[in-house]
């Protein structure tokens, strides 16, 4: 009876994608996001609170070794290295995505990746005992490599496990855990918990615990069925993985869909990054991913987070209370991302992207005004706090989570790893650039630096409005057809003609890939 009911339900979603959230699917989403994405968020914000104590440690260590204190320039350089080595590591991690996910699988890559995190956590946790600050900087690079892999592999893995009608919601789960990680680091970093002279090594070292949990639990869950069938050619394992994930035995429709994708992609083989960049059939998909990733990072989200404390201090919030305001902003971030999980399937991706970047654009413009006038108009400082909150809401519902969902959806199985590698590299490169440049930008332009972010948001909105299609509840095949028109390549449906239309397999496969991967 149950099978019958499920079969019935599947026919409601076209192409028989059985869109039920099963316990296995929910658990694998939570464990992979908690074990990997959570730590990306945690390490983004973990060094903000204990910064003064860590800088004292750098100074003291240098003094003990050399008998003289370090110059303030040298200290500033060491500290900006400590901050910026994380996104630089993220860039290296992104460059490892393609070889690792194709050779070790999606789940395998996540498990191997945990070793980076555990090693870095041990090094950071013991750095004070070992009296070495170099190890902290090295660990930030290792943690960055870890986060670079995690930020790309988790959305890919979950996107390939999900049925198409849950793909968006499950695709936002990694971003949700990134925000939970940021919040956890902010709470644990409060002065009376671990954000103090004794507690900071523990605060840095805690990052290994989620990795350890994931390393112990994730092996019991299935690998991506699309990877097993299309890349490994193992239909039996793919079928078993799907049956576990869907909670019933009738998975023929999904298997058939993957087979079709597999057949059409055999013509093309695996895309490398170079072939992806030169392939006309995927041109607009690639440009869209690059624009959305640049928009996401260059819209100033990290600047707002890095300098939230400063914005609140200049807004007249008491120094002792600034950390609580920062925590409450982290909490708003989590709540709004959670909201995005529930509305992305009803409203669609496009609306959330446009609304999200729109809010960021407006709040950056108003923030510029408020920061300029706060000395002369007393209530302007409160307006700047409101702007920061609106900005965070905008980023949390659209700009942060949706681009990663879109990479999964706009590319097929053969091109997806290369697309994540390109998207991920752009993401981390821009993150690194903002972290490095913003201090100088702020020194030179003051409050006007937010106008640059405003312009970037506006440009991104215009591009998305004109080019990016709605992808909710569509199979990979359908999305591909939409993009094929834009790429001005023909998609032939007849199998005999596949060989003549070299673009077709990419397109068709891609569409299908998405839907299967969604499934």
From TrEMBL:
<dbReference type="GO" id="GO:0042383">
    <property type="term" value="C:sarcolemma"/>
</dbReference>
<feature type="transmembrane region" description="Helical">
    <location>
        <begin position="200"/>
        <end position="221"/>
    </location>
</feature>
<keyword id="KW-0813">Transport</keyword>
<keyword id="KW-1133">Transmembrane helix</keyword>
<feature type="transmembrane region" description="Helical">
    <location>
        <begin position="447"/>
        <end position="468"/>
    </location>
</feature>
<feature type="transmembrane region" description="Helical">
    <location>
        <begin position="136"/>
        <end position="158"/>
    </location>
</feature>
<dbReference type="InterPro" id="IPR005828">
    <property type="entry name" value="MFS_sugar_transport-like"/>
</dbReference>
<dbReference type="GO" id="GO:0005353">
    <property type="term" value="F:fructose transmembrane transporter activity"/>
</dbReference>
<feature type="transmembrane region" description="Helical">
    <location>
        <begin position="418"/>
        <end position="441"/>
    </location>
</feature>
<dbReference type="InterPro" id="IPR036259">
    <property type="entry name" value="MFS_trans_sf"/>
</dbReference>
<dbReference type="GO" id="GO:1990539">
    <property type="term" value="P:fructose import across plasma membrane"/>
</dbReference>
<feature type="transmembrane region" description="Helical">
    <location>
        <begin position="76"/>
        <end position="98"/>
    </location>
</feature>
<feature type="transmembrane region" description="Helical">
    <location>
        <begin position="351"/>
        <end position="373"/>
    </location>
</feature>
<dbReference type="GO" id="GO:0070837">
    <property type="term" value="P:dehydroascorbic acid transport"/>
</dbReference>
<dbReference type="GO" id="GO:0046323">
    <property type="term" value="P:D-glucose import"/>
</dbReference>
<dbReference type="Pfam" id="PF00083">
    <property type="entry name" value="Sugar_tr"/>
</dbReference>
<feature type="transmembrane region" description="Helical">
    <location>
        <begin position="21"/>
        <end position="42"/>
    </location>
</feature>
<protein>
    <recommendedName>
        <fullName>Solute carrier family 2, facilitated glucose transporter member 5</fullName>
    </recommendedName>
</protein>
<feature type="compositionally biased region" description="Basic and acidic residues">
    <location>
        <begin position="497"/>
        <end position="513"/>
    </location>
</feature>
<keyword id="KW-0812">Transmembrane</keyword>
<keyword id="KW-1003">Cell membrane</keyword>
<dbReference type="GO" id="GO:0055056">
    <property type="term" value="F:D-glucose transmembrane transporter activity"/>
</dbReference>
<dbReference type="InterPro" id="IPR003663">
    <property type="entry name" value="Sugar/inositol_transpt"/>
</dbReference>
<feature type="transmembrane region" description="Helical">
    <location>
        <begin position="170"/>
        <end position="194"/>
    </location>
</feature>
<keyword id="KW-0472">Membrane</keyword>
<feature type="domain" description="Major facilitator superfamily (MFS) profile">
    <location>
        <begin position="29"/>
        <end position="472"/>
    </location>
</feature>
<keyword id="KW-0762">Sugar transport</keyword>
<feature type="transmembrane region" description="Helical">
    <location>
        <begin position="379"/>
        <end position="406"/>
    </location>
</feature>
<comment type="similarity">
    <text>Belongs to the major facilitator superfamily. Sugar transporter (TC 2.A.1.1) family. Glucose transporter subfamily.</text>
</comment>
<feature type="transmembrane region" description="Helical">
    <location>
        <begin position="286"/>
        <end position="308"/>
    </location>
</feature>
<dbReference type="InterPro" id="IPR045263">
    <property type="entry name" value="GLUT"/>
</dbReference>
<dbReference type="InterPro" id="IPR020846">
    <property type="entry name" value="MFS_dom"/>
</dbReference>
<feature type="transmembrane region" description="Helical">
    <location>
        <begin position="324"/>
        <end position="344"/>
    </location>
</feature>
<feature type="transmembrane region" description="Helical">
    <location>
        <begin position="110"/>
        <end position="130"/>
    </location>
</feature>
<feature type="region of interest" description="Disordered">
    <location>
        <begin position="497"/>
        <end position="519"/>
    </location>
</feature>
<dbReference type="InterPro" id="IPR005829">
    <property type="entry name" value="Sugar_transporter_CS"/>
</dbReference>
